[in-house]
Amino acid sequence: MHNQVLKFLLLTLWLIGCSESNEQLEETNQDNTSEVNSYYDDNPDFFTFSTKESLPQNLTWQNGMDLPDIGSSLAIKGGTEYSRLADFPRTLRVVGPDSNGSFRPYILDNVSMQLAHRHPDEFVFYPGLADSWAIDRDAKTIYVKLDTNARWSDGAPVTSDDFMFMFFFFQSAYIVAPWYNNWYGTQYTNITKFDDHTFSITVPDAKPDMDSRVLELRPIPQNFFKHLGEDYVERYQWKFQPTTGAYVIRDEDIKKGRSITLTRLENWWAKDKKFWRNRFNPDRIQLNVIRDTPKVFEAFKRGDIDQFSLSLAEYWYDKLPNDDPDVQGGYIHKTTFYNQRPRPTYGLWMNSARPLLDTKDIRIGINHATNWQLVIDNYFRGDYARMRTSSDGYGEFTHPSLSPRTFDIALAEQHFSKAGFNKRAGDGILVNDAGQRLSFTVSTGYESYKDVLTILKEEALKAGLEFRIEVLDSTAGWKKVQEKKHDIHFAAFGVNLEMYPRFWETYHSVNAYDVAFTENGAVNADRRLKTQSNNLESMASLDMDGLIDQYRISESKHQMVDLAHRMTELHHEYASFVPGFVQGFYRLGHWRWVKYPDGFNHKHSGDGQEFHVHWIDMDEKQETLANRKSRVPYPPAINVYDQFAQ
Amino acid sequence: MLTPQTLKKLRRFRAIKRGYYSFLILAGLLVIVTMGELLVSDRALIVSYEGELFFPTYGEFHPGSDFGLDYEYEVNYRDLGRSFKGSDNWLIMPPVPYSPLENHAPSGIFKPAGPSLAEQHYLGTDTTSRDILARLFYGTRIALYFSLAFMVCVYGIGIAIGCAMGYFGGVFDLIFQRLIEIWSNIPFLYMVIIVFSVIPATFSVPVRITILLTVMVLFSWTSMTYYMRTETYKEKTRDYIASARIIGASNTRIILRHILPNVLSTLVTFVPFTIVSAITAITALDFLGFGLPPPTPSLGELLKQGTANLRTAPWIVTSAFGTLVILLTLVTFIGEAVRESFDPKKFTIYR
């Protein structure tokens, strides 16, 4: 009797347990199709469903097929490329927390396909997922016909629905990515589906580069994200999202903390396409986690890693000099490639909301007290050039004649003295009548540029200016400037290959203060700093705001060029940025089995691997390693490709 | 304090030659680094200019205009010396005429340069052409001062609390023991890293060093209390303490005059090893990048540079590593000798 009661109890408990877990399962695995559809229904102005017949007839379709090929027809497929990651990726997601790391280019930026891509030599678009496209400037709309062969790596076709879903995805709060929410919510006004492979997207302003806003979009696979919900971040943390590109990551190739390997799709849908056939050549790309750069270099010298960036002077001249046995034996090739693209803005960003730094004379003085030229000549050994403005490398949008303030102790002292700093304390630092020292913290998140700052510090001392150096780790450094807690920060904004520079993010007063000015244009006394924005200089100027507003809505390229120059001048006059250095090239060392096309790479390439035009010759690898062992030399190869030097 | 017994111990310490000489060398080293500015500095020792004598080593800086040059920042004494050639003016530079902070590249390029007698870079220069000997010298000074201060603080707190626990016992002892158990389970290196990552750089270097010291002391004093507590417990029950109490001696008097001198010999033997651990800790922190802010000279920072340039600039790692080995060996030798000469088994009748 007792026994039976016990059994019954156990059975009940088990049943309760079952039903609970089933319920949970249902909750999390809920298909979101109906949610997505109702989102479309709720926003009829944004999501429009139309028919093929209503597609305008008079459109001029283009497809960029007359552009030259990318890569080399000599490229052979196969082999394994060995490369390095500084840290194991924190996620395989491409959007959301922790996703914007150094690993993302391998699964998104450099690999997956957009509707169309800017040609790396010609700057105009060649087709990716799109078969052709048409631009209607008056209607601010781009029409797109998808390539009907386009496939996700899981075999599903790429359709207009994936683009509709892309907007749902990026506008949704589930992805925990406010920047995307804002961008996809404000920079686009409509998507219209005509059929499974035809759609149009409308943007709010017909900017000169409005085509790039649409053509550079990447779809999101609706089928894969059908369980998108509150648990997005955890659920998709280690799931590889189907890709339109050549490389996939298989589950067994994720060795957490150690390595991650990409595998080339044998039947990649674009493998015979004109602009894609000579690229993405290695069968596998194995990325090993090696944290320290010196260790990476040792691994490279052993042949465990195929390529190594030699952009730093110490590696190019000292650690792998031209007379190194491996270079002289021709086993390792050294290459310098001059490229053309917007340059990262390395420089000192002064927070002009801080005491003392709010005085223009002090800012000008700091400009004159910063000896970048010495750093460039003696530390970078003259390889780099002085940056002129914070928007270098944008062709005609870059100011033609403006030059940065030079290191000049007398001028610096003159400006400091105008601001009241005319006496020197016992240690040589300037003080004002109130006894305040001319001393600022210079923070940075770049451990590798620590030496640069110590050189600047010693030089600034001569002008009576003290820099207190604070080296933080990269996350903490970025957090500090985003919270606007810095005096002076050394950093660079990474810049994309774009037609014209952005000003709103960095110089508009709405990104500096909550309410910068009162209604009659006076400075608002109660204004509060705005955090989490890229206006690192806390620059707030009504003149600048006016120009930026015009620039943002301007649809004439000529006017925008003029505005860009005027804004650059205004920014120079404000003197809150000390332009640092630009590198007009990249350098690398690679083993001779890594092959590159004849001209090495394309004009707008940012590094050797960006466009995946290289290939690995496995036979040559065997041979080279054997010959290296027996000291049979090849002709050395130290090449400079300066066909795109500026 | 200097009872006949202590004197005997000290005599015995002197007899252990290895430890004794190590002690002398280290003491000498301490004296030398204390007056370091006279040996390693970019400021001249004496300048005779237009019949007037200057002693720039200590005190305020002299702008170039003091010596007829056309700039207001600190005069470069090495250049000044060269310009004095052929005139009545003269100056004497220290044996190592470089500051640990200045970039001095004879080749015009900031990169490691090998040891050179001609340039007076006796141990070469580091990656930004700073003199290694100067950086080593001041790095060692900071490490030594730091570890001495660390030792004093840790012993001060450890002895006070340990003694009190042992002497008063009871609930006081019970509560403090539990507290210490919890406290000592907090991993010290992580705590230092965490605390130091939130300290703003606006603090000057001495303040930051003090904070680092405080944090390290906060997490290190506990180990000392164990020894002090047991020793005090042991001594407390001895007859002479009972007699002192009967005569009416106060607690303070008993602890300071009777217990402390008798337990100190145990503690002394730990001193050198505390110093070793302090030097290692601050070097490790600098190596990891959580120690002193750049460009403060430090052994750990040099060691890090050295390991990053093993192939191209072996002199960096050799000098940093060599200094560390010498320093730690000296202290360890002293430690061994102290332990041997203070060994209670040699002098006590309790076996």
Features:
heterodimer, A: 646 residues, alpha+beta, Dipeptide-binding Protein, domain 1, Dipeptide-binding Protein, domain 3, six-stranded mixed β-sheet, five-stranded mixed β-sheet, 28 strands, 29% helix, B: 351 residues, mainly alpha, MetI-like fold
Protein described:
The complex is a heterodimer of chains A (646) and B (351). Chain A is of the alpha+beta class. Chain A folds into 3 domains: 32-70 and 111-240, Alpha-Beta Complex (Dipeptide-binding Protein, domain 1); 290-336 and 588-641, no CATH class; 347-582, Dipeptide-binding Protein, domain 3, CATH 3.10.105.10. Chain A is built from 19 helices and 28 strands. In chain A, the strands form 8 sheets. A 6-stranded mixed β-sheet of chain A has the order 1-8-9-7-6-2. In chain A, strands 3, 10, 11, 12 and 13 form a 5-stranded mixed β-sheet that branches. In chain A, a hairpin with a 5-residue loop joins strand 18 (423-424) and strand 19. The longest helix of chain A is centred in the first third of the chain and has 27 residues, at 2-28. With 351 residues, chain B is mainly α. Chain B has 2 domains: 4-33 and 134-346, MetI-like fold, CATH 1.10.3720.10; 42-93, no CATH class. Helix content of chain B is 61%, strand content 3%. Chain B has 13 helices and 3 strands; from the N terminus they run ααββαβαααααααααα. In chain B, strands 2-1-3 form a 3-stranded antiparallel β-sheet, covered by helices on one side. Chains A and B meet through helix 9, helix 12, helix 14 and strand 21 of A and loops of B.
